[in-house]
Amino acid sequence: MSAVIDTHGHADHEGHGYQPSGLMRWVTTTNHKDIGTMYLWFSLIMLFVGGVLALTLRAELFQPGIQIVNPEFFNQLTTMHGLIMVFGAIMPAFVGFANWQIPMMIGAPDMAFARMNNWSFWLLPVAASLLVISFFVPGGAPAAGWTIYAPLSTQMGPGMDLGIFALHIMGASSIMGSINIVTTILNMRAPGMTLMKMPMFVWTWLITAYLLIAVMPVLAGAITMVLADRHFGTSFFNAAGGGDPVMFQHIFWFFGHPEVYIMILPAFGIISQVIPAFARKPLFGYASMVYATSSIAILSFIVWAHHMFTVGMPTAALLFFMYATMLIAVPTGVKVFNWLATMWKGSMTFETPMLFAVGFIFVFTMGGFTGLMLAIMPVDVQLQDTYYVVAHFHYVLVAGSLYAIFAGTYFWIPKWTGRMYDETLGKWHFWLSLVFFNITFFPMHFLGLAGMPRRIPDYASQFTEFNQIATVGAFGFGLSQLLFLYIVLKASVFARGEKTPARPWEGADTLEWTHLPSPAPYHSFHEQPEVK
Amino acid sequence: MSDRAQHYFVPPPSHWMIVGSFALLFMAGGAAMWFNGADLGRYGVLVGFALLAFMMFRWFGDVVRESEGGKYGKWEDVSFRWGMSWFIFSEVMFFAAFFGALFYARVLAVPDLGSLASRELLWPDFSAHWPSAGPGFKDPFTPMAAWGVPALNTLLLLTSGVTLTIAHFGMIEGKRTKLKLWLFLTIALGVTFLGFQIYEYSHAYSELNLKLSTGIYGTTFFMLTGFHGFHVTIGVIMLTTMLLRSIAGHFKPKQHFAFEAVAWYWHFVDVVWLLLFVFVYWV
Question: Using the beta-carbon criterion (under 8 Å), do A217 and B97 form an inter-chain contact?
């Protein structure tokens, strides 16, 4: 074997000699920037796929009665909208940010495991294909909601198997991606960059990646149990065999609640980079931000059953999960007040990234408050599975995670492409998104309080007006995102727009702005910078 | 974080990952067909598995060549250590899900089915005591006893942890014969363990009427021990790779993280077995 090493290892596979072009460049790449780009494009495509599913739902809900899709297909659409948005759009987008930004922000030459990084990405198209194929098998796509509760999920057709395998593969992708990110952050920081000198975005991703490694295997376990119950005659979720369908909910939400923070902590990180840059002040309360993020992560493991208040639990458990959930408002409040204090007496300008960041704080906080209301167990008993819940989690996931993704994209696209995005169109994109978002989701609070159940294609006629407003808003929001697509294409693929200096934002002071030109070179930080 | 003058090794572009992606596509698609009655899917799984094995062989082969070719220094070594630690942590959480299911069934689900309300409404004859196959299961079965083959298996795995440590000392001292001999013994113990487990399974099926479909007891028994056995199998394959590499003259007394990683993994599998022995077989 050693003879092979000498002839093979040095000659053709070594160094920069081997650089395929065209499609194979992207298929074989080990470069963190290439992989980050692929993650971001993949998530943008999935955003539009999931968005089309959502608009089909909203079109059906424009009027009471059944007009466009039958109820079975409606259930498939809600399920796939959730799965695609969570696992295909939001999470890969943040991993794309991590790939682009973490090595540049900590002064590393690349990610710690470059080949595994490639595989983490190239598993996602496989999973997405399985999900799409599931629409065309007998019985159609999974239709049990993105939470795939047993016994619904133990009874469905082959589409559920494809969904389960897609989740397995996306889970494997997430675990590998997270191991890579944690290792990169812990081992590849520039000399002098102690943990407490890391940019907040890096901190939030360190904690997010830890959460992912902790809970993704639990999801894998849960869906493996579903698979076994479906095909191998086991009784995990079958009461006649001594199992319990409620057990699925416990295991699922043990994954599912940390998952919620997996989708918001990197958003907090992006906002914590953007606001100081445009307030031209350092982040207020850096250390408390780190502790708040860690507290949120720890608390996220002991609150899962607030998703199950109506399932039948002992009062002591209900009380525990209610109070533990409310506790999360404390570190989250610390974060919100720190952002406000960062802006206080700052020398502020409102370019598009800052607009999205301020919009984030405003609208996300509303989602946080409805979350507090849902945490109150006696209230939740009324609101469980109503449109109030739908309004709540879209306020934190769209106005939270997605707005932060927009803010981050506008903030860093000059660094990624070397071109400034179109500021006028960017501002249009923000205002259209903000207005249409609220037109879509604000009425859902009223619908939920009035008792309209979620995941139902038909409704009583008194809900019509608010549903029509929401549908109009949804189409407006969806079409506004075409503007985003155009702005991104213009700066990246078409390479139009003015060239940017290394540091287009005067208040941005992390390593990618201070040490690298725009666009950032293909290989950066072969020599690590010293951090004072 | 000491030697920053060196460059971190970033590998050149590689073809193996996309092969792995197609492998998983074949396996997932094939399994979905197979489980739903289309036998053609079996070949999909087979092709996918072959592709995956090929991909891992070539990918890890690249890593081995880079390692033996001196591409990795202290800096890369730390990355591998972190990577393996976090991977094992993820495995811990995977088993935690299944242990969680076991405890939930034993502490909550089964007693609840035997509660007064449940008996009045659903199953009046059911008395909840572990091991239980649930109220709907009428076929009598015998639970697996702890103090036969399972106890022997515990002894085998614990011993294999010791022999592996002796092999590791052989590595550190540069005594290659000691390394190879004790590594071989470790593998032999692992294979014997697997053999005993196969015997135990066939004993359960043929004489105890204990099957995967034997309610929650059969479910948790076979799924937990089965996943553990699967991990032992992977561990044996990894140990065998280490033995072959040792025979080929790989590793240095101070640089042999692949071996250490496999040892960590083996000890992890060992600890999982101890928990299984206590909570699945014994109490």
Answer: yes
Q: Which A positions 389-448 lie with beta carbon below 8 A of chain B?
A: none
Q: Which of A523, A518, A497, A496 is nearest to A508 (CA)?
A: A518
- For residue B80, CA distances in Å to A179, A184, A281, A361, B73 come to 10, 11, 38, 39, 11
3-state secondary structure of A243: coil
In angstroms, the separation between the Cα of residue B21 and the nearest Cα of chain A is: 5
Neighbour count for residue A434 (Cβ, 10 Å) = 20
> Does the domain made of B1-72 have the CATH classification 3.30.590.10?
no
| Chain pair A-B, CB pairs under 8 angstroms | 248
Q: Which superfamily does CATH assign the domain made up of B74-282 to?
A: Cytochrome c oxidase, subunit III, four-helix bundle (1.20.120.80)
The domains of chain B are located at 1-72, 74-282
Cβ within 8 Å of B, A 309-348:
none
- Catalytic residue list of A: 81, 110, 146, 173-174, 257, 259, 261, 272, 306-307, 332, 335, 454
Question: Of B226, B105, B31, which is closest to residue A231 (Cα–Cα)?
Answer: B31
Q: What is the pTM of this model?
A: 0.95
| Residue-level pLDDT, tens digit, chain A, 532 residues | 233 333 333 333 344 556 788 899 999 999 999 999 999 999 999 999 999 999 999 999 999 999 999 999 999 999 999 999 999 999 999 999 999 999 999 999 999 999 999 999 999 999 999 999 999 999 999 999 999 999 999 999 999 999 999 999 999 999 999 999 999 999 999 999 999 999 999 999 999 999 999 999 999 999 999 999 999 999 999 999 999 999 999 999 999 999 999 999 999 999 999 999 999 999 999 999 999 999 999 999 999 999 999 999 999 999 999 999 999 999 999 999 999 999 999 999 999 999 999 999 999 999 999 999 999 999 999 999 999 999 999 999 999 999 999 999 999 999 999 999 999 999 999 999 999 999 999 999 999 999 999 999 999 999 999 999 999 999 999 999 999 999 999 999 999 999 999 999 999 999 999 999 999 999 999 889 999 7
Confidence check on the interface: ipTM exceeds 0.90, yes or no: yes
